[in-house]
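Before anything else, study the sequence and fold tokens given here and see whether the fold suits the sequence. Record follows:
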Amino acid sequence: MDPKLSEVSQMCELFKAALVRNDFEKCETLLSQLKVLLTAFRSLPPLFEATLNAVHELTVARDIYEHAVILSVKTEDQDAFERDFFQLKPYYTDAGDRLPQSQQEFPILGLNLLRLLVQNRIAEFHTELELLSASALENPCIKHAVELEQSFMEGAYNRVLTARQTVPHETYVYFMDLLAKTVRDEIAGCSEKAYDSLSINDARQILLFSSDQELSGYINEEHPEWEIKNGYVIFQKAKESAPCKEIPSLQLITQTLSYARELERIV
């Protein structure tokens, strides 16, 4: 085996072992070194030269970037996730016909869809979906993300929250927790505008918590302006602190009448 390829392979195994034991500092150091070493292989993107060890080099590089993505999830670093995912993606697309399919491909593609959903990048979410094959869309990891997006768009927040219990891969829990927080924040914002107060039982059910303690913890951390008093959650302070904007009704009426006159002239 080529000495450089042998060095990268051995370091890759050390990197993966450090990731298993959650030694993130060691992982970061090894990953930086590996990325530098990979630049010496001309078989990798974007060159894709047909070197003697091209398949082996591509396989090792793909393995490294797949575990780099998993590392970014474990360290809860979304910027690193995006950076490493885009470095990995050519190995699934441009080099897809040169390598056997990776077992990590669909879980990672599903993870990326989930990330886009959490970040509310819906247009990019659908763009990524359109690039997938019909067989990929039937994979449980991809279907999980698609069903979540449908539930989110329909406002079926209970389905979004319960989906955490059926994640197709352990790495999905991080993004599912972020999505759950987004959903609860959305419900909370609507609730404080729609109601003056709610009973603790109703608030717990609306915010989809399983216990009063969870509800109390959420209020203390996220909405200290809410009051819990006599068995009720009171939103009055939140309403008072919300900025009140005056609607320039006279200006709007004048503009509407002006548009109407212009339309009459055109007709």
Summary: The chain has a mean pLDDT of 89. The chain has 14 helices and three strands. The beta strands are 197-199, 227-229, 232-234.
